[in-house]
Amino acid sequence: MTNLSMNLVATARDHGDTVALRCNDLALTYTEFDSAAARIATLLEREGIGPGDRVGIMLGNTPAFALAFYGILRRGAIAVPMNPLLKAREIEFYLSNTGASALFATPVFADEARAAVDVAGGRLWLVDDAGLADLIADLPVQQSPVDCEDSDTAVILHTSGTTGKPKGAELTHGGLALNCEVTARTLLRIEFGDVVMGCLPLFHVFGLTCGMNTSVLVGATLTLIPRFDPRTAIQVIERDRVTVFLGVPTMYAAMLGVAREFGPSATASLRTCASGGASLPVQVLNDFEKTFGCIILEGYGLSETSPVASFNHPDRERKAGSIGTPIEGVRMRAVDGEGNQVAIGEPGEIQIAGHNIMKGYWNQPDATAAAIDADGWFASGDIGTVDEDGYFFIVDRKKDLIIRGGYNVYPREIEEVLYEHPAVAEVAVVGIAHESLGEEIGAAVALKPGAAIEPGELVDFVKERVAAYKYPRHVWFLPELPKGATGKILRREINVSEVESSTGRA
Q: Taking every annotated instance into account, which residue ranges of this chain make up the domain AMP-dependent synthetase/ligase (predicted)?
């Protein structure tokens, strides 16, 4: 039996009195964690939700997410994590796309959740930590997790590409279990007694696998911060004696910015930091290590790779600016447009093969076939080089992905919303370099003949329809957008310097 929730059962058996989850003043032991997950499995069973059924989780970074996630897996159902900041139309798509039977959602965004469920159907539970405890308080414990195969889907994480329609990456029980085992044993060296900082969103694969699932596997304590703030992060590191910190580059830069407010003892407990989600500037890496006295190990992965594919291994040479070498059981290569492996130092698309690769895109066989070839190689869409020692370096993104503050934003999705406005004729959404966020979102717009509108009105139009991290902060107008010979709009030829001179700055 491979059910990922068996890791929780085993840890609760061996280390039941150890604090598993901590958030503000709330602390749950592994016994309490396992018991709550088992009661959630009973709740799902009574609602007629069984193995293979999909259940959405739209909860923040608090223990409620972890309890719901492991309760869903224990029942043999499939978890569909979502960002709590999503708007109703986005939630409805996730639910409808997966045919989800139910949704656990935060009361903070109750209106959006209700509106989505009204369209998609299914059961809705609006719960925070206390509300979830009340919901399951009188329910009996489901005795044991449902049997699953390695290849059974455990999680559907939505990602996207150039089509603009999100795709649900199916991550399996076996793939997730092995990815967190390799992460704990060979990469982060997390063991029983460690305290892991949970700044990363649990609905994101980095926080889900490397933070939560890895902590559960070894019996570490996961201390959660509902919303990242650099001062709060350092205070919690000091309070809980955090040993392992997982973050994205913007988090490290933000903590550097407030470091002078704290003494060296505040972060003395830190042993290992890991960075992913975007390239970590070498200057930030060097400054952070010098200031906090703790190494940062940079890695690489995607939702489709469970996520870890490569890492700067702690027992090998570390190369600043590199995403390291493939992890145990994984192969990587860089290929040209014909699929031939490129020479050392030459750029090519990074492809990945191994136990970490997704099962496929949910109900999208054509998209799956386009992403994974007959030999099992997954095309990442990222362009990179390989040096003579086998270390990979990211050069650019083949896909037009924008990473704003660690969150993925897909231009086509935002363009589709802008096209809904009656004044818009053409639009290209692009990333603009930003000192602290990495990238900011901009939209170059050509209006329909005779149309008159202020840039701020378009900003507000999008803001009402997508999550707060997605809407463009800069909108500027052009007579027409650059196009190729076939009439395709060329985002790469959009001059982002127009932002500074344009009256369309928002």
A: 11-362
Predicted confidence (pLDDT) per residue in 85-96, tens digit: 999 999 999 999
Q: Which amino acid is at 164?
A: G
**Which of 390, 386, 377, 384 minimizes the C-alpha distance to 351?**
377
* pTM of the entire predicted model: 0.87
Judging by DSSP bridges, how do beta strands 19-23 and 26-29 pair with one another?
A: antiparallel
Nearest Cα to Cα of residue 320 among 282, 289, 288, 294: 282
**Residue predicted with more confidence, 409 or 113:** 113
Cα–Cα distances (Å) from 28 to 32, 41, 114, 128, 384, in that order, read: 6, 18, 29, 15, 43
Reference 419, options 442, 445, 401; nearest CA is 445
**Residue 158 vs residues 60, 298, 332, 445: alpha-carbon distances, Å:** 17, 24, 23, 28
Residues 307, 24: Cα–Cα separation, whole Å: 28
Question: What 8-state DSSP symbol labels residue 357?
Answer: S
| Structural tokens at position 493 | 């030829």
Q: What span, in angstroms and rounded, lies between the C-alpha atoms of 143 and 80?
A: 24
pLDDT tens digits, 125-146: 999 999 999 999 999 997 799 9
d(CA 320, CA 393): 10
Residue 332 has pLDDT above 60, yes or no: yes
Sort residue 265 into left (φ over 0), alpha (ψ -120 to 50) or beta: alpha
What is the C-alpha to C-alpha distance for residues 363 and 180, in angstroms, rounded to an integer? 26
Helix (H/G/I), strand (E/B), else coil: 287: helix
What are the structural domains of the chain?
Answer: 6-383 (3.40.50.12780), 402-501 (3.30.300.30)
Query: How far is 74 from 444, CA to CA, in rounded Å?
Result: 47
Task: Write out 122-165 in H/E/C secondary structure.
Answer: CEEEECCHHHHHHHHCCCCCCCCCCCCCCCCEEEEEEECCCCCC
Q: Where are the alpha helices (DSSP H) in 332-465?
A: 365-371, 411-419, 455-463
The answer to whether the CB of 440 falls within 8 A of the CB of 432 is yes
What DSSP state is assigned to residue 303?
G
Q: Return d(Cα 268, Cα 153) in angstroms, integer.
A: 40
Whether the CB-CB separation of 32 and 22 falls below 8 Å is answered with: no
**Residues 157, 161, 162: CA angle, nearest 5 degrees:** 160
Q: Return the closest-CA partner of residue 231 out of 252, 249, 258, 210.
A: 258
- Closest of 68, 121, 65, 76 to residue 95, by C-alpha: 121
pLDDT for 318 equals: 94
Q: Which residue from 22, 30, 47 is spatially nearest to 102, judged by alpha carbons?
A: 47
Which DSSP state fits 307? S
The residue ranking higher by pLDDT, 492 or 156, is 156
